[in-house]
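Sharing a chain and its predicted structure for anyone who wants a worked example. Both blocks are below, sequence first, tokens second.
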Amino acid sequence: MRIREANLLVCGAGGFIGGHLVSKLFAMGARSVRAVDIKPFAEWYQIHPGADNRILDLQLRESCLEAADGVDGLFQLAADMGGMGFIENHKALCMLTVLTSTHMLLAARDTGVKRVFYSSSACVYNGEKQKNYAVVPLREEDAYPAMPEDGYGWEKLFTERMCRHLYEDFGLESRVARFHNVYGPWGTWMGGREKAPAAIARKVLEAKHSGSQQIEIWGDGQQTRSFMYIDDCTRGVAEIFESEIREPINLGSSQLVTINQLVDIAEEIAGVRLRRRYNLSAPKGVNGRNSDNTLLHSYLGWEPSIRLRDGMKKTMAWVEQQMLAGVASK
């Protein structure tokens, strides 16, 4: 299925990735884009005047049927989630997203949607494979035997299976990508739901502008991660959606860094050097996680390649603009 000239739906369009994805779909020539989110319009990260923007609670099946009516393909990004500080402390809320995903997939089946894209997460991977800082990049098969992130990871893994079985039982075509730490402008940067790049950007900039010259880091700073810039993410989503890849697939950068190295990059961009205070009791997630992109590259001949420093420079410029303008994170 091609995006060009298709009628498309983005669920969770008021969120960070969803807002960027609407722009990407229009740029690729979509005939129409219906943008749906539960939040009031004032809380959407981006609103596109050319889209059919609607406020709907997709936990309700009737709202999902309304959202899916008349569209050719949909992107299910709607979820109650955030960074590690949120998902470790709100496991039930994360798992309740299963209502949204289930009702949306059934609505797609019942309204004749031709193809669904589902945004899964690297949190589905077996925790036993993520105990070492020098982690071996995670391959798609490493999700089993199942031992995902409690709460959020289980919901994602369950919905992956539901996508598979809806295809087997009803022929509903779905594409599933496991996101690895997406970041960039127009996202959450404070308030508890922000992810590591945005949190580090804010902390470094706050220290710079306040003159405090110190930063708190969650964990010991040796945790390893890869971070994918939003432009790579939306390109990957579009290409996977149009592909014939029926199995869950990684979508993430393979540039592995420690949290300390992420702080180094942010300090260098901001032109400061800060004293580091490590909060060992704060949520820090697994010790190591990286994306093995062998399968992605074999299917698409491409993988996320925007360097972390380049993406962080753009992200920090945007966060600093928001801070200086006194704009609260949504």
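Comments welcome. The CA atoms of residues 128 and 212 lie 39 Å apart.
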